[in-house]
Amino acid sequence: MIVQKFGGTSVKSLARIKNVASIIASAASTDSVVAVVSAMGDTTDYLVKLAHQAGKAPNRRELDALLSTGEQISAALVAMALNDVGARAVSLTGAQLGITTESIHAAARIVDINTERVRRHLDDGLIVVAAGFQGKTREGDTTTLGRGGSDTTAVALAAALHASACDIFTDVSGVYTADPNIVPTAQLLKEISYEEMLEMARVGAQVLHPRAVELARKHGIPVRVRNTFDPTHEGTILKGADEMEIYRPVSGVTVDRDQARLAILKVPDRPGVAGEIFGALAERRVSVDMIIQAFHEGGSVNDITFTVKRGDLVTAHQALKEAASRTGAEGVLADEDVAKVSIVGAGLMDQPDVAARMFSALGQADINIKMISTSEIRISCAISDRDAERAVRIVHDLFHLDEPESN
Ligand code: ADP
Ligand code: ASP
Ligand code: MG
What we know:
The protein is α/β, with parallel strands linked by helices and 407 residues long. The chain has helices at 14-28, 43-54, 60-84, 116-123, 150-160, 194-202, 210-219, 273-283, 313-327, 354-364, 388-398; strands spanning 2-6, 33-37, 89-92, 99-101, 110-113, 127-131, 134-136, 142-144, 165-170, 191-193, 223-227, 236-239, 252-268, 291-295, 301-309, 331-344, 371-375, 378-383. Adenosine-5'-diphosphate binds next to loops.
């Protein structure tokens, strides 16, 4: 039993849907197949736009009801295309797949999959075409899993069904050292550890949804990222760190342009203030990333600066202004001109000079670093969005990532 997932570009048109159907049909000649599909091309963006035209602040429940239809269209069309080439297929929505999620709209987590119906169809010899990116709450309301969430549907189904493979088909040949659409000399990685991929996905490598990587790591699923338009290519396989055959100090460079920065100025320095400020943001479901607290001379007040997703800026700004007046802070600043450039690599912890080299290279290119954050296997710099792509290329060059890898 295998799971195959096809992203938006792969099912953009009817011609491409027929191509996808032929890949699925050929796999189905030897295996049971669950095929997970995304919405056609930019359908989800289009639906989001439509929703905002219908009302200024669309209700999240209704937004999920709307967005989930994109994947349902593709699933039905792929099933039809399969039937047309003589394969028996049935399309299923998230609810029909038995996917239950939390009762949170727009970014729900899967809590349970009842695989009974899918197994029954597979046992009857059918190909199951699953609408990605969606589930239902315990009350039966439709939810979505967050942008890019069809990857997560695929890995979650692979885990629940104990699939022997989970292939994520997309519009590039696998995971590269950087987005190949930004750095043409980026190299394809034959393998990458779950930890590095998770870190890369969290800091902007759109190729896999972070939650999908988390699930793959938890269940040890050998996810393979492959090219829909060149399905013979081996692509990239995700593995446990201890199974890696290739050692690299730096595996990849990523950029996240969906960033903004906020600062709350001269907050009184007393216990509980940070809790109050970030509590107010958490209440509005705003996730906060890089955080810096800097003290002023005299030590009685601090500035606290942090980054958020650009789409959360308005909500976060409002929450912060309220927190400023409650805590007696002097004011609030918002900066939309932010991108985050990161390097990720399991070897970073053994190389104390890497951070300094990255900062110097950006400095020499006259790129100002606004903020820095690190983990054991990642270094991130917030810079001006204008410099984003240039910075990725500079850092990619600096660590010689354009050279083919060797064992
Ligand atoms: P899909 O619609 O198939 O889910 P996505 O657009 O979500 O595809 O993800 C594939 C895209 O991810 C590629 O077209 C590429 O531009 C981008 N990408 C960003 N970083 C990387 C990377 N390190 N390796 C491969 N692709 C990347
Ligand atoms: N269609 C959804 C999106 O555009 C989910 C996905 O493609 O994975 O985000
Ligand atoms: Mg995607």
